[in-house]
Write a structure and sequence with these properties.
The complex is a heterodimer of chains A (355) and B (344). Chain A is of the alpha/beta class and 355 residues long. Helices cover 41% and strands 23% of the residues of chain A. The radius of gyration of chain A is 23 Å and the shape is globular. Chain B has helices spanning 5-10, 14-17, 29-36, 53-59, 66-108, 111-126, 129-144, 148-178, 180-195, 198-208, 214-238, 242-250, 255-288, 297-306, 310-342. The chains are: A alpha/beta (355), B mainly alpha (344). At the A-B interface, helix 4, strand 6 and helix 6 of A face helix 12 and helix 13 of B. The structure holds adenosine-5'-triphosphate and magnesium ion.
Chain lengths: 355, 344
């Protein structure tokens, strides 16, 4: 992942909410915790020394519990919130140096946003809502109609352009929200809990839609969620926030197998690992392996599918293929071991944590 | 001698007061009474007077009486009146002009053009046949009982005043919604305008303008009726969903675009509710304003009171009620149409 281009780079970003944030910031830099800052100085620590690189063309998921600062962080990327200290580089430019006009250009052309509560304009038709970005840029409806209609069709809202948002269900409204972001033709899409207000089935649909769109368009997506399953489903890069600080970031599979802190261990202990973990994360790298194997599997298969293939026989092992080439072998015993959250070695600690 | 002598004696102000309490000039009613009943009567503690201006004047003639305060206010007002007129007169002249024109137009257009025109307006605003029918019945009735001209005069005044209220009130409301400071300043003023009895508006205005000028009642009506549209514009804009505002920001709208494309359209139901209230209050005030020569149905009500013509009073009262119903229903129907198109 180190060789991919970096689209957005967040450098030592701090945000303190309150009347006089600068002195309070000094305490934070001195190591005062969020709870103590609130108690002793009546300021809220929103973000604490955030450093994140958002890779271009990938989906970066920021995840954390309620109040961990996710919304605050994503709103710094288009400066809906001003930081107390730090830098936000977009395509190498520090957007904190931007003038109002430059900032509006950035928001119109470089970044678009999808909101948890949809935030459509209720007095405008679906088509006009989808065309918000061009209409802000001064285009008339007939100028942007084709583009807007194209994206409405793409998100599955054929022929509904003349309706008003209140005539649609939540899922459909969020499709309009996504079409609105796509119509701006920006490289970067910010999504703040975009699917959290939808019921589970619709939500799965929308996740599928996003994955499809990503395969096709390769936008730089920053997606916020408090749901680990959703995070693991969508993320190429996962950032875990707690009380305004990043506790761990990296490839989701890696975080799952190597949780950095007890907090994350706890966090990941409840998920269905067989469905999330991929063969590539648990296989033994052996490009020139020989010997008798039960068959071939792809490096991107989930462990669940391999278990189904082996019919539960733990004595087997498979050749792992990537683009038709052998990259390693997977022993079923190793696979089963990976399904248990934590390695044998620190078993006592694990027992204490989950107990 | 008087109850509060001790205050001035105690403060050593006796010299300032002058020697005696009855050195001519203005005398209070109490003094006159005391004089006629013969000299000083010892007051029992139970009847100790409130330390009012008059009571203190009794003790010290240099202390002003309360009627000197009121006449002082009057003098003060008269003193600044001329300079005030220099500013206010040209500013308000367009109002006189608009009222005169509107009155002339509404009366000059013949009834067989006017009534269909009003029907058309009712239809355009409400899209309800029912209301068009109501307009025909009401104006037909008022015309039938020979109140057509009066009704048109009242309508003309309400039209001009309500339009002025909207033109002034909406921008003031917007300014209030954008700045907490403006809001803090405006709210007491609006409270005052709203609670002041409507007759009180008339008093300083009568001094300021001549009774023959239409702007006299125009201003009185506007001051009284502008409050709801200001308040509801402010409220409406402040109530716009912050998520939608955030979306507007996130897509790079300028402040101006936000105001005209998001805030005002979304506040429109509230603004229209304010306009409805403003129209109803103009109607209420137009009756009172007939005291200062506003023409229209109010004149008939006044005639009913002055010369005890019960029939005239009742019929013109009914006319006002009919007018109120029409104006209310039509504006409410417009409001309902806005609400339907943007409810979520
Ligand atoms: N305008 C503000 N003034 C003061 N404190 C704020 C403000 N906005 C956010 N905070 C605080 O900053 C912290 C992070 O808030 P944020 O909204 O970013 O959380 P979140 O992770 O998005 O939570 P959720 O999942 O509930 O949306 C919270 O403690 C919150 O109270
Ligand atoms: Mg949030």
């Amino acid at each position: 992942m180190t060789d991919t281009e970096i689209k957005i780079s967040i450098r030592s970003l701090y945000k303190v909410f309150g009347d006089d944030p600068l002195p309070a910031l000094q305490y934070v830099k001195g190591g005062l915790s969020k709870a103590d800052l609130l108690e002793t100085h009546n300021h809220v620590l929103g973000l604490n020394d955030i450093n994140v690189d958002v890779p271009a063309g990938k989906t970066t998921v920021i995840m954390g519990l309620s109040g961990s600062g996710k919304s605050t962080l994503i709103r710094h990327l288009n400066r809906l919130i001003e930081p107390t200290a730090g830098e936000v580089l977009v395509n190498g430019d520090n957007i904190l140096d931007y003038s109002e006009a430059q900032l509006r250009e950035l928001r119109k052309h470089t970044m678009s946003m999808v909101f948890q509560k949809f935030a459509l304009l209720p007095h405008r038709t679906v088509l006009q809502n989808a065309g918000l970005a061009p209409s802000v840029g001064g285009q008339k409806e007939r100028q942007y109609a084709d583009e807007a209609r194209k994206w409405l069709d793409r998100v599955g809202l054929q022929g509904q352009g003349e309706q008003y948002p209140h005539q649609m269900s939540g899922g459909m409204q969020q499709r309009v929200g996504i079409a609105r972001a796509l119509t701006s033709n920006s490289d970067i899409m910010l999504m703040d809990e975009a699917f959290s207000a939808l019921d589970p089935l619709i939500r799965t649909d929308m996740q599928g839609l996003l994955i499809e769109l990503q395969a096709e368009l390769q936008k730089t997506v920053v997606f916020i969620t408090h749901d680990l399953d959703e995070a693991l489903k969508l993320a190429d890069h996962l950032v875990i926030l707690k009380d305004g600080s990043v506790v761990q970031q990296g490839e989701p599979q890696y975080i799952l197998l190597n949780p950095a802190t007890p907090y994350i261990k706890d966090f990941v202990s409840d998920i269905n690992r067989a469905r999330v973990l991929r063969v590539r994360s648990v296989m033994t790298k052996a490009p020139d392996a020989t010997g008798e194997r039960a068959g071939e599997i792809d490096h991107d298969d989930t462990l669940e599918s391999v278990i189904a293939l082996s019919e539960g026989d733990t004595s087997l092992s498979y050749r792992v293929m990537k683009d038709g080439k052998l990259v390693g072998v997977l022993d079923m015993r190793k696979l089963v071991r990976a399904l248990v959250p934590v390695e044998q070695s620190d078993d006592p600690e694990n027992a204490r944590l989950s107990g | 001698m008087a109850t509060y002598d001790f205050i001035f004696d105690g403060l050593g102000l006796r010299n300032w007061c002058g020697s005696s309490a009855d050195d001519g000039g203005m005398t209070s009613m109490a003094q006159l009474l005391a004089q006629t009943s013969g000299g000083d009567v010892e007051v029992s503690p139970w009847e100790t007077p409130f330390p009012s201006m008059d009571a203190l004047h009794d003790a010290c003639p240099s202390f002003p009486q309360s009627r000197e305060l009121t006449s002082g206010l009057e003098q003060g007002f008269l003193a600044i009146k001329d300079s005030l007129k220099v500013v206010v007169d040209p500013l308000t002249q367009p109002l006189s002009w608009a009222l005169n024109e509107a009155l002339w137009v509404m009366q000059a257009v013949p009834w067989f053009v006017m009534i269909p025109l009003l029907m058309l307006v009712a239809w355009a605003v409400s899209r309800q046949m029912k209301l068009v029918g109501l307009v025909v019945i009401c104006f037909g009735f008022l015309g039938f009982v020979d109140y057509y001209t009066y009704t048109m005069q009242t309508l003309a005044i309400i039209f001009v005043c309500a339009v002025t209220c909207v033109l002034l009130g909406v921008p003031i409301g917007i300014a209030m919604s954008r700045s907490d400071r403006v809001q803090r300043i405006m709210i007491p003023i609006l409270d005052m305008l709203q609670t002041l009895p409507p007759f009180v508006y008339l008093i300083p205005l009568i001094f300021l303008f001549s009774v023959t000028e239409p702007k006299l009642y125009g201003i009185a009506i506007i001051l009284y009726a502008i409050v709801p549209v200001v308040r509801l514009t402010d409220l409406g804009i402040r109530l716009v969903d912050p998520d939608v505002i955030e979306a507007a920001d996130a897509f790079g709208m300028t402040k101006r675009q936000k105001l005209f494309n998001v805030q005002i359209p979304l506040a429109l139901p509230n603004i229209m509710a304010g306009v409805n209230q403003t129209i109803m209050m103009s109607l209420a005030m137009v009756v009172i304003a007939s005291l200062v020569s506003a023409p229209g149905l109010g004149v008939l009500v006044l005639r009913g009171i002055r010369s005890l013509e019960l029939g005239v009073g009742l019929l013109s009262g009914l006319g006002i009620v009919l007018l109120a119903i029409i104006l209310d229903r039509v504006t409410k129907a417009a409001l309902a149409r806005i609400n339907v198109s943007q409810s979520r």
